[in-house]
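so im writing up the methods section and need the Imidazoleglycerol-phosphate dehydratase record in one place, dumping it here so i stop losing it
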Amino acid sequence: MREATERRQSKETDIQVSLNLNGAGQAEVSTGIGFFDHMLTAFVVHGGFNAGIKTVGDLAVDCHHTIEDTGIVLGRAFAKALGDKSGIMRYGSFYIPMDESLAFASVDISGRPYLVFDCPFSGERMGEMETAMVEEFFRAFAFNAGITLHIRLLYGTNDHHKCEAIFKAVAHSLKIALQQNGKPVLSTKGLLD
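--- predicted struct ---
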């Protein structure tokens, strides 16, 4: 189980996501934004799930709708694949070094969406992706997946390295939190929402 497909169509984007949380890190990603494809592929591979992500967006305007809406649909697929969240570790935290950069991520698959994003970038873009969109992607993902997500960039100078460390740190923290422990929902309330 732990699989989901999700599609969202609007006047700005058309997005299809297929997700298997019990995968082996296989990614098929096409968003029209090369650097974003690179980050999503790293996210899937390091998270250890399988995902197909196909986004057609209004890139003639800019990258905003394409990236934010992909976060929305990917988050919804995660929420659907998780079901009632029973039998998972729930929490995960991880540090990732990427050359001179170091990023940290911590996740609670809680059903209570929240994002803390403390990651300064020095430039305006990486390829065709605006650096400001990294936070927008993770906000859309966290709120639609129903998770609490804290991300902090401890240091770094190269924006590519910073961003890649962030995506990989989130992926590894999710990988830990998604591990199955065969126990009921990890909550004193008996449910996660």
